[in-house]
Amino acid sequence: MRKVHISSVRPGEKIAKPLFTETGSVLLGVGVELNDRYIERLKNLGIDTVYIEDVHTEDLFPEDSIRDETRNKAVEAVHKTMTGLMDVKSVKGRASVPEIGNTFRKVFGTIMQDLSTRKEVLVNLSNMHTMDGYLFHHSVNVAVLSGIIGIAKGYNQSQLADLGVGALLFDVGMMNIPKEVWNKNGPLTDDERGLVQRHAEDGYNMLRNQFDVSLLSAHCALQHHERYDGHGYPRGISGKDMHEYAQIVAIADVYDALTSPRLYRKRYSPSEAIEFLFASGNQYFDLDLVRLFCRHISIYPIASTVELNTGQVGVVSAVNPNSVQRPTIRILKEADGTDVASPYEIDLHAHYSYMITKTL
């Protein structure tokens, strides 16, 4: 299979990995043949990339960080909890919903089980979901990314649980904001910006009133928009005054947001997002945490379509964990745009004159 932009999909091509709705249920399953109506519908839903079946890459299977079953159950739990907290009393932090903490400790525990089975801890997040599902899938992705960093930091089981619950529910305060505001395709007004910025404290107040959610987990909601140099919100704290769990969630939040399609911009490639994070070190984020985070990101996941400096187009067929910036590329098109008669591979780690110039 290979990953392609929706603009490159042609009628008759078949889905190789399922696409999901906002609640985690399957929108289009493996083997569905795409036609003009399906393609247009996917575009309208905000799905900008898909995996398709391809005879030249049928042996390539991108290894997602977690299983589809795990993701779907996690998204369903996040969706159910967030939408269930939308009543006025809960938003004001006056109500406790039974066993939220216990539910999400179990959800995160399953995520951790999936992560523990991976041979190489390089995160690949497919983000194959509708635009309406962004908030819920985003929360699960942030939990996956945070979990990887928690493992790398050597956190014990209790620490990982607090981090995981906080990461899964860090954006719960967004449910107090009308969807048309946080999905707005254009600049926010001052009033709208103030409403959005209140979501951090709203989320904190919701979580700190849950009897089985720790205060450390709640601080992931409160502090995930604080910045290392003190120019964040809601309190403008800086440096070590920001809890490490919240710093980890903040980095994961920005990375996944950048690499996800939004109404107001195209998605960044993983390499572009990592470049942004490094440029933000010791300004937005602790540079040591950024370095640790970036060591565990799959910059060019298997099955990604890329263009080389030679003009050739190919698909990532293998990743070297010791040189993630220079994977092996299976060439499908020559520089003049012609399809190759028999695809061949170039190991960029062994041939330094070749470079990836962009992800297609």
TrEMBL record:
Alphabetical keyword list: Hydrolase
PROSITE patterns reported for this sequence: HD_GYP
GO molecular function, one term: hydrolase activity
Pfam family, one: HD_5
Highest taxon of source: Bacteria
Domain (HD-GYP) ranges: 104-309
Presence of the UniProt keyword Hydrolase in the record: yes
Residue stretches spanning the membrane: none
Calcium is among the record's keywords: no
Database matches in SUPFAM superfamilies: HD-domain/PDEase-like (SSF109604)
Protein name: Metal-dependent phosphohydrolase
Originating organism: Paenibacillus swuensis
